[in-house]
Specification:
Layout (H helix, E strand, L loop, with lengths): L4 E6 L3 H12 L4 E5 L7 H4 L20 H6 L9 H14 L6 E3 L1 E9 L4 E8 L5 E11 L21 E4 L13 E5 L3 H13 L2 E6 L6 E2 L7 H9 L1 H8 L20 H14 L15 H18 L3 H7 L12 E2 L2 H4 L5 E5 L5 E5 L2 E4 L4 E3 L2 E4 L8 H4 L2 E3 L6 H8 L15 E3 L12 H21 L5 E3 L1 H16 L30 H13 L5 E3 L1
Parallel strand pairs: 1-2, 1-6, 2-3, 4-17, 6-18, 7-16, 8-9, 8-16, 9-12, 10-11
Antiparallel strand pairs: 4-5, 5-6, 13-14, 14-15, 19-20
Helix pairs in contact: 1-14, 8-9
GO molecular function, one term: monooxygenase activity
Cofactor: FAD
InterPro entries: FAD-binding_Monooxygenases, FAD/NAD-bd_sf
Length: 536
């Protein structure tokens, strides 16, 4: 065991890199721990065909260093996994951050010593199985919102003779060329992967439970002029985006829905369809809270499905039944067009669920069998909480965080801290804007906020900080109330925003909607002497 660290940071994705850089800049004794062999976080693991970000690349980047903004050049409107991975490696090298991390090391448990006001973190070195222990005053979990994959276990899965792959842990040696392949899932990941997989395989069978609304990305190469123009305007651009609800410019129309005729609004939707990306969200000021513009958008998207998908059976299966705002809108490139290919089939497992896997493929409850050489699980993540609760975290009086969140949902304060777990911070955790915003902005806001707290506590010789239980409950209730004013949490919605994709997970909307208002609240809390926290 080393000497006591000021801060241990778990994770070497964008959040871990940003947190370690800032804490080191402040003169803190900080060390990072990462289970992967290198930096990158979710962009290290998610190497499936077609993987890319749905936030424009010029905005999905750090703003803490002007030279970094100038020297890195993005190539496409929406960056693919390889480019984002290269960017994060560049950041690690540019700021000499690798030396601050232990790689290939899994965090198994962490416990708070109340007498010493220290966190003890226990790890396992993957390659050697060596056990290690770290002590620190503060523990920061930069473990990612989409990092703990959902791994359904089907009856007979071990008997399958072919290969099984998970999109969230895509292996370099994956071989699907010329094979009969099945994909389970049609969420954001699958919508990116399926068109690319279809190009390689001899036959593709997609097993779909829920049809999704899909918005065209309109991805393309960036021109030299627009890249340079964006670089030149970064200071103003970043300042503007830091004051927007999604920390992203969605070309917000300043009219409310009632200012349009229905025909005018349909034209607005059509223009935004052609523009691609999340521009739909900006079609009118009250889009998120008004079901009428949502209804018209739903109708428009369904009309596009009817235009694109030729087979009536496939078209019916692909047409969504749930409200549009129930889920994050996936961005696609030729997703629906892919189903016009003769070698691509579509099966609704909402109508006829999977019974089991056989040695040769999949059998449905109605007896139909599908012979496969390879099965791909595109079944998403135990989002927001899974990477945290997979660590055995013990707080005051031996309280277990995983058990508390299982019973009560992920109650917290600011999406950053949990009562009963002093000096513990969760970066972009449940209860913060997180994935309902430009993640890079949320990451920097959180890592700076944590660094400011650590710096303040050292300056004032304080030993512990944690939320008051009442403040935590009020915050959690407020996050729910904001969500209930929109369509995101309405009855019937099933999404990973609510934890509905994980059996046994308590249903709770986990995102604070409104990056700009969230930042103001955080700043007001800090300016008031960290209102709602207990400091000792």
């Amino acid at each position: 065991m080393e000497d006591v660290w000021d801060v241990i940071v778990v994770g070497a994705g964008a959040a871990g890199l940003a947190q370690v850089r800032r804490l080191r800049e402040d003169g803190m004794k900080v060390h990072g721990i990462e289970v992967a062999a290198g930096v990158g976080g979710t962009w290290y693991w998610n190497r499936y065909p077609g993987a890319r970000c749905d936030v424009p690349s010029m905005d999905y980047s750090f703003q803490f260093d002007r030279e970094l903004e100038e020297e890195w050049t993005w190539k496409e409107r929406y960056a693919p996994q390889a480019e984002i991975f290269a960017y994060l490696n560049h950041v690690a090298d540019r700021f000499d951050l690798r030396q601050e991390f232990s790689f290939g090391e899994r965090v198994d448990s962490a416990s708070f010593n109340e007498d010493a006001n220290l966190w003890t973190t226990n790890t396992t070195v993957i390659e050697t199985n060596e056990k290690k222990t770290y002590e620190s005053r503060f523990l920061v979990l930069a473990t990612g919102c989409l990092s703990k994959i959902n791994e359904p276990q089907l009856e007979g899965q071990k008997d399958f003779k072919g290969n099984i792959y998970y999109t969230g842990r895509w292996p370099e040696e994956a071989d699907i060329a010329g094979k009969r392949v099945g994909v389970i899932g049609t969420g954001s990941t699958a919508i990116q992967a399926i068109p690319m997989i279809a190009k390689e395989v001899s036959h593709l069978t997609v097993f779909q439970r829920t049809a999704n609304y899909v918005i065209p990305a309109r991805n393309r190469e960036l021109t030299v002029d627009e890249v340079q123009s964006t670089k030149n305007s970064y200071p103003q651009r970043r300042a503007q985006q830091n004051n927007l609800p999604f920390a992203l410019d969605i070309n917000q129309n300043m009219k409310v829905f009632n200012d349009f005729t229905e025909e005018e609004y349909r034209e607005e939707v059509a223009q935004r369809w052609e523009a691609g990306g999340f521009a739909f969200l900006g079609s009118c000021l009250d889009y998120i809270v008004n079901p009428e513009p949502q209804r018209i958008t739903e109708e428009y998207v369904k009309e596009r499905i009817a235009d694109i998908v030729k087979d009536p059976r496939k078209r019916e299966i692909l047409t969504p039944k749930l409200p549009l705002v129930c889920k994050r809108m996936p961005l696609d490139t030729n997703y629906w067009e892919t189903y016009n290919s003769d070698h691509v089939d579509l099966v609704s497992i909402a109508d006829t669920p999977i019974l089991r896997m056989t040695p040769n493929g999949i059998e449905l409850e109605d007896g139909r069998q599908f012979n496969l050489d390879c099965l791909i699980f595109a079944t998403g993540f135990d989002a927001m909480t899974g990477a945290v609760t997979s660590i055995d975290i013990s707080g005051r009086e031996g309280k277990k965080l995983a058990q508390e969140w299982k019973e009560n949902g992920p109650t917290n304060y600011l999406g950053l801290c949990v009562s009963g777990y002093p000096n513990l911070f969760t970066i972009t955790g449940p209860g913060s804007p997180s994935v309902a915003s430009n993640m890079m902005f949320s990451i920097e806001q959180h890592t700076d906020y944590v660094a400011d707290i650590v710096k303040m506590m050292k300056a004032k010789n304080l030993l512990s900080i944690e939320p008051e239980l009442e403040s935590q409950q009020k915050w959690t209730d407020m996050v729910t109330q904001i969500a209930n004013a929109t369509g995101f949490a309405q009855e019937g919605c099933k999404s990973w925003y609510l934890g509905s994709n994980i059996p046994g997970k308590k249903r709770q909307f986990m995102l604070y909607l409104g990056f700009d208002t969230y930042v103001k609240q955080c700043n007001d809390i800090a300016a008031g002497g960290y209102v709602g926290f207990k400091l000792a």
